Amino acid sequence: MAEDIFEKPxxxxxxxxxxxxMLEGKAPLDWAKSAYGTERVKEILIALKHGGxx
Length: 54
Hints:
The chain is an all-alpha fold. The protein is 63% helix and 0% strand. It has helices at 2-6, 9-17, 28-31, 35-50.
């Protein structure tokens, strides 16, 4: 999903690995270890794709 939005694997990997303010400063990959975290990361990615608010 991240590669679809960022278009380059390197950009997607960087986004998934860096801390994000909407995830308490933690990396999306860390959050995605739980079902709730995975859904939260998906919500952010969808918002990025469509330019919407989270």
